[in-house]
Protein backbone atom coordinates (compact mmCIF):
# COMPACT_ATOMS: atom_id res chain seq x y z
CA UNK A 1 0.00 0.00 0.00
CA UNK A 2 1.46 3.31 -1.01
CA UNK A 3 0.19 6.76 -0.41
CA UNK A 4 -0.07 8.39 -3.77
CA UNK A 5 1.83 11.61 -3.83
CA UNK A 6 -0.37 12.87 -6.62
CA UNK A 7 -3.46 12.35 -4.53
CA UNK A 8 -1.92 14.19 -1.63
CA UNK A 9 -1.02 17.03 -3.93
CA UNK A 10 -4.46 17.19 -5.51
CA UNK A 11 -5.42 20.41 -3.83
CA UNK A 12 -2.02 22.02 -3.86
CA UNK A 13 -3.04 24.71 -6.32
CA UNK A 14 -6.09 25.80 -4.44
CA UNK A 15 -5.75 28.56 -1.91
CA UNK A 16 -7.70 27.01 0.88
CA UNK A 17 -7.62 28.80 4.15
CA UNK A 18 -8.36 26.76 7.21
CA UNK A 19 -8.98 27.54 10.81
CA UNK A 20 -11.51 30.14 11.68
CA UNK A 21 -11.12 32.35 14.70
CA UNK A 22 -13.37 31.28 17.48
CA UNK A 23 -13.99 33.93 20.09
CA UNK A 24 -14.51 32.62 23.60
CA UNK A 25 -18.19 32.53 24.46
CA UNK A 26 -19.69 33.53 27.74
CA UNK A 27 -22.85 31.94 28.91
CA UNK A 28 -25.06 33.83 31.30
CA UNK A 29 -27.68 31.26 32.16
CA UNK A 30 -26.10 28.35 33.94
CA UNK A 31 -29.30 26.39 34.27
CA UNK A 32 -30.12 26.37 30.58
CA UNK A 33 -29.33 23.18 28.73
CA UNK A 34 -27.41 23.78 25.56
CA UNK A 35 -29.19 22.05 22.69
CA UNK A 36 -27.82 20.68 19.47
CA UNK A 37 -29.39 18.67 16.69
CA UNK A 38 -27.39 16.45 14.38
CA UNK A 39 -28.70 14.57 11.38
CA UNK A 40 -26.76 11.81 9.66
CA UNK A 41 -27.20 11.63 5.92
CA UNK A 42 -25.23 11.33 2.74
CA UNK A 43 -23.93 14.57 1.28
CA UNK A 44 -21.68 15.82 -1.48
CA UNK A 45 -18.65 17.85 -0.44
CA UNK A 46 -15.46 19.14 -1.96
CA UNK A 47 -12.47 17.71 -0.14
CA UNK A 48 -9.74 18.42 -2.63
CA UNK A 49 -10.31 22.00 -3.73
CA UNK A 50 -11.99 23.98 -6.45
CA UNK A 51 -11.68 22.40 -9.86
CA UNK A 52 -11.36 18.92 -8.43
CA UNK A 53 -14.19 16.38 -8.30
CA UNK A 54 -16.63 16.39 -5.41
CA UNK A 55 -16.99 13.43 -3.07
CA UNK A 56 -20.12 11.72 -1.79
CA UNK A 57 -19.72 11.27 1.95
CA UNK A 58 -21.81 10.35 4.97
CA UNK A 59 -22.00 13.36 7.20
CA UNK A 60 -23.51 15.07 10.21
CA UNK A 61 -25.62 17.96 8.91
CA UNK A 62 -24.09 17.72 5.45
CA UNK A 63 -20.56 18.80 6.32
CA UNK A 64 -17.24 17.07 7.02
CA UNK A 65 -16.24 17.30 9.69
CA UNK A 66 -19.67 17.70 11.27
CA UNK A 67 -20.65 20.85 13.14
CA UNK A 68 -18.19 21.92 15.80
CA UNK A 69 -20.05 21.50 19.06
CA UNK A 70 -19.00 23.98 21.75
CA UNK A 71 -20.13 23.61 25.32
CA UNK A 72 -18.86 24.92 28.62
CA UNK A 73 -17.24 22.82 31.28
CA UNK A 74 -19.81 21.66 33.81
CA UNK A 75 -22.82 22.79 31.80
CA UNK A 76 -25.37 20.28 30.53
CA UNK A 77 -25.79 19.62 26.83
CA UNK A 78 -28.54 17.79 24.97
CA UNK A 79 -27.85 16.49 21.49
CA UNK A 80 -30.64 14.95 19.45
CA UNK A 81 -29.29 12.69 16.72
CA UNK A 82 -31.57 11.87 13.82
CA UNK A 83 -30.52 9.03 11.54
CA UNK A 84 -31.20 9.43 7.83
CA UNK A 85 -28.70 6.80 6.76
CA UNK A 86 -29.89 3.48 5.37
CA UNK A 87 -28.32 1.66 8.31
CA UNK A 88 -28.18 1.80 12.11
CA UNK A 89 -25.94 4.29 13.83
CA UNK A 90 -25.03 5.66 17.27
CA UNK A 91 -22.80 8.49 18.49
CA UNK A 92 -19.87 8.04 20.86
CA UNK A 93 -18.59 11.18 22.61
CA UNK A 94 -14.97 10.24 22.56
CA UNK A 95 -13.08 11.10 25.75
CA UNK A 96 -16.00 12.60 27.66
CA UNK A 97 -16.47 11.11 31.12
CA UNK A 98 -20.20 10.52 31.13
CA UNK A 99 -22.87 8.04 32.30
CA UNK A 100 -22.63 4.66 30.59
CA UNK A 101 -26.09 5.04 29.00
CA UNK A 102 -24.84 8.06 27.01
CA UNK A 103 -21.71 6.35 25.69
CA UNK A 104 -23.15 5.36 22.32
CA UNK A 105 -22.23 1.70 22.00
CA UNK A 106 -25.03 -0.16 20.15
CA UNK A 107 -26.41 -3.24 21.85
CA UNK A 108 -24.39 -2.47 24.97
CA UNK A 109 -25.26 1.00 26.25
CA UNK A 110 -28.22 1.76 23.98
CA UNK A 111 -30.35 0.36 21.18
CA UNK A 112 -28.96 1.35 17.79
CA UNK A 113 -30.60 4.36 16.17
CA UNK A 114 -32.48 2.78 13.27
CA UNK A 115 -32.94 4.57 9.94
CA UNK A 116 -35.53 7.32 10.39
CA UNK A 117 -35.25 7.26 14.19
CA UNK A 118 -33.68 9.62 16.72
CA UNK A 119 -31.86 9.36 20.02
CA UNK A 120 -31.35 12.04 22.63
CA UNK A 121 -27.96 12.22 24.31
CA UNK A 122 -27.66 14.27 27.45
CA UNK A 123 -24.62 14.76 29.62
CA UNK A 124 -22.61 17.35 31.52
CA UNK A 125 -18.95 17.34 30.51
CA UNK A 126 -16.83 17.55 33.67
CA UNK A 127 -13.59 18.28 31.81
CA UNK A 128 -12.65 21.22 29.60
CA UNK A 129 -10.67 20.31 26.50
CA UNK A 130 -10.61 19.01 22.95
CA UNK A 131 -12.88 16.04 22.35
CA UNK A 132 -14.68 14.59 19.33
CA UNK A 133 -17.65 12.50 18.30
CA UNK A 134 -18.17 9.63 15.89
CA UNK A 135 -20.43 6.59 15.35
CA UNK A 136 -19.89 3.29 17.11
CA UNK A 137 -21.95 1.26 14.62
CA UNK A 138 -20.43 -0.03 11.39
CA UNK A 139 -17.62 2.18 12.60
CA UNK A 140 -15.06 1.47 9.92
CA UNK A 141 -17.37 2.56 7.16
CA UNK A 142 -19.32 5.29 8.94
CA UNK A 143 -16.21 6.97 10.33
CA UNK A 144 -14.31 6.40 7.10
CA UNK A 145 -17.07 7.96 5.02
CA UNK A 146 -17.06 11.15 7.05
CA UNK A 147 -19.19 10.84 10.19
CA UNK A 148 -16.92 12.71 12.61
CA UNK A 149 -16.91 16.05 14.37
CA UNK A 150 -15.20 18.08 17.08
CA UNK A 151 -16.63 18.60 20.56
CA UNK A 152 -14.89 21.46 22.32
CA UNK A 153 -15.48 21.92 26.02
CA UNK A 154 -14.52 25.46 26.94
CA UNK A 155 -12.69 26.40 30.11
CA UNK A 156 -14.64 28.52 32.58
CA UNK A 157 -11.92 31.15 32.36
CA UNK A 158 -10.70 31.84 28.83
CA UNK A 159 -7.09 30.85 28.15
CA UNK A 160 -4.74 33.77 27.43
CA UNK A 161 -4.04 33.28 23.74
CA UNK A 162 -4.73 35.46 20.72
CA UNK A 163 -6.47 32.76 18.75
CA UNK A 164 -8.02 29.36 19.30
CA UNK A 165 -7.62 27.24 16.18
CA UNK A 166 -8.84 23.73 15.38
CA UNK A 167 -7.16 21.39 12.91
CA UNK A 168 -9.48 18.45 12.54
CA UNK A 169 -7.44 15.99 10.50
CA UNK A 170 -8.99 13.24 8.40
CA UNK A 171 -7.51 10.70 6.03
CA UNK A 172 -9.41 9.55 2.94
CA UNK A 173 -8.83 6.93 0.32
CA UNK A 174 -10.11 8.49 -2.87
CA UNK A 175 -10.08 7.12 -6.39
CA UNK A 176 -9.23 9.15 -9.50
CA UNK A 177 -12.77 10.52 -9.68
CA UNK A 178 -12.77 11.73 -6.11
CA UNK A 179 -14.94 8.87 -4.88
CA UNK A 180 -14.31 7.13 -1.59
CA UNK A 181 -12.73 3.83 -2.56
CA UNK A 182 -14.60 0.70 -1.48
CA UNK A 183 -13.04 -2.30 0.17
CA UNK A 184 -13.63 -1.32 3.79
CA UNK A 185 -12.63 -4.17 6.08
CA UNK A 186 -10.22 -5.74 3.60
CA UNK A 187 -8.82 -8.70 5.48
CA UNK A 188 -5.20 -8.12 4.50
CA UNK A 189 -5.25 -4.50 5.64
CA UNK A 190 -7.07 -5.35 8.82
CA UNK A 191 -4.18 -7.61 9.77
CA UNK A 192 -1.61 -4.90 9.17
CA UNK A 193 -1.67 -1.11 9.46
CA UNK A 194 -5.40 -0.71 8.79
CA UNK A 195 -6.95 1.39 6.06
CA UNK A 196 -4.53 4.24 5.44
CA UNK A 197 -5.74 6.64 2.76
CA UNK A 198 -4.14 8.87 0.15
CA UNK A 199 -5.65 12.26 0.93
CA UNK A 200 -5.30 14.15 4.20
CA UNK A 201 -7.67 17.00 4.96
CA UNK A 202 -7.68 19.70 7.62
CA UNK A 203 -11.17 20.83 8.61
CA UNK A 204 -12.56 19.01 5.58
CA UNK A 205 -10.24 20.35 2.87
CA UNK A 206 -6.84 19.50 1.47
CA UNK A 207 -5.16 22.51 2.97
CA UNK A 208 -2.79 24.95 1.38
CA UNK A 209 -2.12 27.57 3.98
CA UNK A 210 -3.09 29.02 7.29
CA UNK A 211 -2.64 32.80 7.64
CA UNK A 212 -0.92 34.11 10.78
CA UNK A 213 0.51 37.36 12.13
CA UNK A 214 4.02 37.70 13.47
CA UNK A 215 3.95 37.89 17.25
CA UNK A 216 0.61 36.27 17.91
CA UNK A 217 0.12 33.37 20.28
CA UNK A 218 -2.11 30.58 18.97
CA UNK A 219 -3.70 27.64 20.73
CA UNK A 220 -3.90 24.91 18.13
CA UNK A 221 -6.16 21.97 18.81
CA UNK A 222 -5.04 18.95 16.79
CA UNK A 223 -7.45 16.06 16.32
CA UNK A 224 -6.49 12.91 14.45
CA UNK A 225 -9.81 11.55 13.19
CA UNK A 226 -8.22 9.13 10.71
CA UNK A 227 -9.22 5.47 10.57
CA UNK A 228 -5.66 4.24 10.75
CA UNK A 229 -3.07 6.88 9.79
CA UNK A 230 -0.68 7.97 12.52
CA UNK A 231 0.60 11.51 12.04
CA UNK A 232 3.83 13.11 13.26
CA UNK A 233 3.91 16.88 12.76
CA UNK A 234 6.95 19.10 12.59
CA UNK A 235 6.47 22.87 12.59
CA UNK A 236 9.38 24.36 10.66
CA UNK A 237 10.77 27.48 12.31
CA UNK A 238 8.49 27.21 15.36
CA UNK A 239 8.58 25.79 18.86
CA UNK A 240 5.23 24.24 19.68
CA UNK A 241 4.51 23.67 23.35
CA UNK A 242 2.22 20.79 24.25
CA UNK A 243 -0.35 21.83 26.86
CA UNK A 244 -2.91 19.00 26.71
CA UNK A 245 -3.28 15.40 25.58
CA UNK A 246 -6.72 14.03 24.73
CA UNK A 247 -8.35 17.07 26.29
CA UNK A 248 -6.48 16.73 29.59
CA UNK A 249 -4.01 19.50 30.54
CA UNK A 250 -0.39 18.52 31.12
CA UNK A 251 2.75 20.36 32.19
CA UNK A 252 3.69 22.49 29.18
CA UNK A 253 6.56 20.80 27.33
CA UNK A 254 8.20 20.54 23.93
CA UNK A 255 7.08 17.49 21.98
CA UNK A 256 9.48 14.55 22.07
CA UNK A 257 11.98 14.80 19.24
CA UNK A 258 10.35 18.05 18.13
CA UNK A 259 7.46 16.14 16.61
CA UNK A 260 3.82 16.01 17.66
CA UNK A 261 2.69 12.41 17.20
CA UNK A 262 -0.99 11.51 17.16
CA UNK A 263 -2.41 8.06 16.61
CA UNK A 264 -6.01 7.72 15.44
CA UNK A 265 -8.48 9.31 17.89
CA UNK A 266 -5.78 11.20 19.77
CA UNK A 267 -5.78 14.95 20.34
CA UNK A 268 -3.01 17.31 21.31
CA UNK A 269 -3.40 20.97 22.20
CA UNK A 270 -0.32 23.01 21.47
CA UNK A 271 0.54 26.64 21.95
CA UNK A 272 2.59 28.20 19.19
CA UNK A 273 4.12 31.64 19.36
CA UNK A 274 4.37 32.99 15.84
CA UNK A 275 8.07 33.77 15.88
CA UNK A 276 8.51 33.70 12.09
CA UNK A 277 9.23 36.67 9.86
CA UNK A 278 6.48 38.80 8.36
CA UNK A 279 5.79 37.80 4.76
CA UNK A 280 7.48 34.43 5.17
CA UNK A 281 6.02 30.97 4.79
CA UNK A 282 6.87 27.90 6.90
CA UNK A 283 5.93 24.30 6.30
CA UNK A 284 4.19 21.87 8.60
CA UNK A 285 5.46 18.41 7.66
CA UNK A 286 3.99 15.03 8.55
CA UNK A 287 6.89 12.58 8.52
CA UNK A 288 5.56 9.81 10.74
CA UNK A 289 6.05 7.26 7.95
CA UNK A 290 9.67 7.98 7.11
CA UNK A 291 9.71 7.66 3.36
CA UNK A 292 6.26 9.10 2.93
CA UNK A 293 6.80 12.54 4.41
CA UNK A 294 4.62 15.24 2.92
CA UNK A 295 3.77 18.86 3.55
CA UNK A 296 0.49 19.09 5.40
CA UNK A 297 0.09 22.85 5.21
CA UNK A 298 1.99 26.15 5.03
CA UNK A 299 1.98 28.69 7.82
CA UNK A 300 1.86 32.00 5.95
CA UNK A 301 2.79 35.24 7.70
CA UNK A 302 1.18 38.43 6.51
CA UNK A 303 3.45 41.32 5.64
CA UNK A 304 2.70 43.50 8.65
CA UNK A 305 5.58 44.22 11.01
CA UNK A 306 5.84 41.91 13.97
CA UNK A 307 3.95 42.82 17.10
CA UNK A 308 5.65 42.97 20.43
CA UNK A 309 6.75 39.36 20.93
CA UNK A 310 5.48 37.45 23.94
CA UNK A 311 8.02 37.22 26.69
CA UNK A 312 5.97 35.15 29.13
CA UNK A 313 5.85 31.36 29.04
CA UNK A 314 2.83 29.74 27.40
CA UNK A 315 -0.04 29.38 29.86
CA UNK A 316 -0.56 26.16 31.74
CA UNK A 317 -4.17 25.04 31.47
CA UNK A 318 -5.98 24.46 34.74
CA UNK A 319 -6.34 20.82 35.66
CA UNK A 320 -9.62 18.98 35.20
CA UNK A 321 -11.33 17.37 38.23
CA UNK A 322 -9.98 13.86 37.66
CA UNK A 323 -9.84 11.41 40.56
CA UNK A 324 -6.24 10.54 41.44
CA UNK A 325 -5.54 6.77 41.35
CA UNK A 326 -4.02 5.28 44.49
CA UNK A 327 -1.18 3.17 43.07
CA UNK A 328 -0.48 1.28 46.28
CA UNK A 329 -4.06 0.11 46.62
CA UNK A 330 -4.64 -0.42 42.91
CA UNK A 331 -5.84 -3.64 41.31
CA UNK A 332 -3.49 -4.74 38.56
CA UNK A 333 -4.51 -6.35 35.30
CA UNK A 334 -2.37 -7.43 32.39
CA UNK A 335 -3.67 -7.13 28.89
CA UNK A 336 -1.77 -8.70 26.01
CA UNK A 337 -2.45 -7.30 22.55
CA UNK A 338 -2.21 -10.16 20.10
CA UNK A 339 -2.56 -11.18 16.48
CA UNK A 340 -2.15 -9.53 13.12
CA UNK A 341 0.32 -10.25 10.39
CA UNK A 342 3.87 -10.92 11.42
CA UNK A 343 6.97 -9.33 9.96
CA UNK A 344 8.45 -5.90 9.74
CA UNK A 345 7.43 -2.80 11.55
CA UNK A 346 5.34 0.01 10.26
CA UNK A 347 3.67 -0.01 6.90
CA UNK A 348 3.90 -2.89 4.50
CA UNK A 349 6.39 -2.54 1.73
CA UNK A 350 6.34 -4.45 -1.51
CA UNK A 351 4.61 -7.57 -0.39
CA UNK A 352 7.46 -9.43 1.16
CA UNK A 353 5.68 -9.60 4.42
CA UNK A 354 2.90 -11.70 3.02
CA UNK A 355 5.22 -14.51 2.03
CA UNK A 356 6.73 -14.71 5.48
CA UNK A 357 3.59 -13.89 7.31
CA UNK A 358 0.25 -15.46 7.55
CA UNK A 359 -1.64 -15.03 10.76
CA UNK A 360 0.16 -15.32 13.98
CA UNK A 361 -0.45 -18.51 15.84
CA UNK A 362 -3.64 -20.48 15.65
CA UNK A 363 -5.30 -19.12 18.71
CA UNK A 364 -7.50 -16.56 17.06
CA UNK A 365 -10.60 -18.09 15.56
CA UNK A 366 -14.02 -17.03 14.34
CA UNK A 367 -12.75 -14.71 11.61
CA UNK A 368 -10.94 -12.48 14.08
CA UNK A 369 -7.48 -11.23 13.30
CA UNK A 370 -6.66 -9.62 16.62
CA UNK A 371 -7.25 -10.43 20.26
CA UNK A 372 -6.75 -9.19 23.81
CA UNK A 373 -5.80 -11.93 26.26
CA UNK A 374 -7.02 -14.43 23.68
CA UNK A 375 -10.49 -12.89 23.42
CA UNK A 376 -11.79 -11.21 20.29
CA UNK A 377 -14.84 -9.02 20.09
CA UNK A 378 -15.50 -8.17 16.47
CA UNK A 379 -17.68 -5.84 14.38
CA UNK A 380 -19.79 -3.53 16.55
CA UNK A 381 -19.20 -5.81 19.51
CA UNK A 382 -20.98 -8.76 21.08
CA UNK A 383 -22.83 -7.46 24.13
CA UNK A 384 -23.23 -10.90 25.68
CA UNK A 385 -19.50 -11.40 25.69
CA UNK A 386 -17.82 -11.76 29.04
CA UNK A 387 -15.82 -8.76 30.21
CA UNK A 388 -12.03 -9.02 30.29
CA UNK A 389 -12.37 -8.41 34.02
CA UNK A 390 -14.59 -6.66 36.53
CA UNK A 391 -13.46 -3.81 38.77
CA UNK A 392 -15.29 -2.61 41.84
CA UNK A 393 -16.61 0.88 41.49
CA UNK A 394 -14.34 3.45 43.06
CA UNK A 395 -11.28 1.17 42.94
CA UNK A 396 -7.97 2.32 41.54
CA UNK A 397 -6.75 0.19 38.71
CA UNK A 398 -3.47 -0.29 36.85
CA UNK A 399 -3.59 -1.84 33.39
CA UNK A 400 -0.38 -3.23 32.03
CA UNK A 401 -0.63 -3.35 28.25
CA UNK A 402 1.78 -5.53 26.35
CA UNK A 403 1.85 -5.13 22.61
CA UNK A 404 2.92 -8.56 21.37
CA UNK A 405 2.25 -7.65 17.76
CA UNK A 406 4.29 -6.11 14.96
CA UNK A 407 1.95 -3.11 14.63
CA UNK A 408 1.10 0.14 16.41
CA UNK A 409 -2.09 0.30 18.45
CA UNK A 410 -3.79 3.42 19.85
CA UNK A 411 -5.73 1.87 22.73
CA UNK A 412 -8.82 3.73 23.92
CA UNK A 413 -10.78 3.31 27.14
CA UNK A 414 -14.34 4.60 27.16
CA UNK A 415 -15.69 6.83 29.89
CA UNK A 416 -12.41 7.38 31.77
CA UNK A 417 -9.10 9.15 31.43
CA UNK A 418 -5.98 7.42 32.70
CA UNK A 419 -2.47 8.41 33.63
CA UNK A 420 0.30 6.80 31.59
CA UNK A 421 2.57 5.86 34.50
CA UNK A 422 5.25 3.85 32.73
CA UNK A 423 6.58 2.84 29.33
CA UNK A 424 8.57 -0.37 28.89
CA UNK A 425 9.03 -0.68 32.62
CA UNK A 426 10.46 2.83 33.04
CA UNK A 427 8.48 5.43 34.96
CA UNK A 428 6.94 8.03 32.69
CA UNK A 429 8.01 11.37 34.13
CA UNK A 430 5.11 13.43 32.78
CA UNK A 431 2.49 10.83 33.85
CA UNK A 432 0.12 12.58 31.49
CA UNK A 433 -3.60 11.91 31.41
CA UNK A 434 -5.01 10.49 28.19
CA UNK A 435 -7.97 8.51 26.92
CA UNK A 436 -6.02 6.85 24.11
CA UNK A 437 -2.45 5.59 24.38
CA UNK A 438 -0.34 4.76 21.34
CA UNK A 439 1.74 1.63 21.86
CA UNK A 440 4.53 0.86 19.38
CA UNK A 441 5.19 -2.72 18.26
CA UNK A 442 6.50 -5.00 21.04
CA UNK A 443 6.32 -2.23 23.63
CA UNK A 444 4.54 -1.92 26.96
CA UNK A 445 2.67 0.79 28.83
CA UNK A 446 1.06 1.00 32.25
CA UNK A 447 -2.10 3.01 32.76
CA UNK A 448 -3.67 4.03 36.04
CA UNK A 449 -7.16 5.34 36.72
CA UNK A 450 -10.01 5.27 39.20
CA UNK A 451 -12.91 3.13 38.05
CA UNK A 452 -15.49 5.67 39.12
CA UNK A 453 -18.20 5.28 36.47
CA UNK A 454 -20.24 2.08 36.73
CA UNK A 455 -21.13 0.16 33.59
CA UNK A 456 -19.69 -1.90 30.77
CA UNK A 457 -17.01 0.12 29.02
CA UNK A 458 -15.33 -0.60 25.73
CA UNK A 459 -11.59 -0.88 25.63
CA UNK A 460 -10.31 -1.15 22.07
CA UNK A 461 -7.76 -0.24 19.48
CA UNK A 462 -8.74 2.89 17.55
CA UNK A 463 -7.25 1.68 14.30
CA UNK A 464 -10.77 0.95 13.21
CA UNK A 465 -9.87 -2.14 11.17
CA UNK A 466 -8.17 -3.62 14.22
CA UNK A 467 -11.12 -2.82 16.46
CA UNK A 468 -13.60 -4.47 14.12
CA UNK A 469 -11.33 -7.47 13.57
CA UNK A 470 -11.09 -8.36 17.24
CA UNK A 471 -8.95 -5.89 19.20
CA UNK A 472 -11.86 -4.89 21.38
CA UNK A 473 -13.03 -5.94 24.80
CA UNK A 474 -15.23 -4.91 27.70
CA UNK A 475 -14.19 -3.78 31.12
CA UNK A 476 -16.98 -3.96 33.67
CA UNK A 477 -17.19 -1.56 36.56
CA UNK A 478 -19.70 -2.85 39.07
CU1 LIG B 1 -13.46 6.89 19.63
CU2 LIG B 1 -14.82 3.30 21.04
O1 LIG B 1 -14.16 5.07 20.33
CU1 LIG C 1 -4.57 -1.71 16.61
Describe this entry's structure for a reader.
With 478 residues, the chain is mainly beta. It is built from five helices and 33 strands. It has helices at 5-9, 139-144, 187-190, 352-356, 464-468, and strands at residues 34-45, 55-60, 69-72, 77-83, 92-94, 118-123, 129-134, 149-154, 163-172, 199-202, 209-212, 217-224, 231-235, 241-245, 248-253, 260-262, 267-273, 281-286, 294-301, 331-339, 370-372, 377-378, 389-391, 396-403, 409-413, 418-423, 426-427, 433-434, 436-439, 444-450, 455-461, 469-470, 472-477. The longest helix is centred in the N-terminal third of the chain and has 6 residues, at 139-144. Mean pLDDT is 89; it is low at 1-29 and 343-363. The structure holds CU-O-CU linkage and copper (II) ion. Copper (II) ion is lined by residues 409, 461, 463, 466, 471. Residues 409, 461, 463, 466, 471 line the site of copper (II) ion.
What global shape is seen? globular
Q: Which value, in Å, is the CA radius of gyration?
A: 21 Å
Unreliable segments (pLDDT under 50, ≥5 consecutive)?
Answer: 1-29, 343-363
Helix content: under 10%
Largest sheet: 7 strands, mixed
- Number of distinct beta strands: 33
| Mean pLDDT score | 89
Strand content: 35-45%
Output the structural class.
Answer: mainly beta
**Could you say which small molecules are bound to this protein?**
CU-O-CU linkage, copper (II) ion
Question: Terminal Cα separation, in Å?
Answer: 44 Å
User: Counting H and I runs of at least 4 residues, what is the number of helices?
Assistant: 5
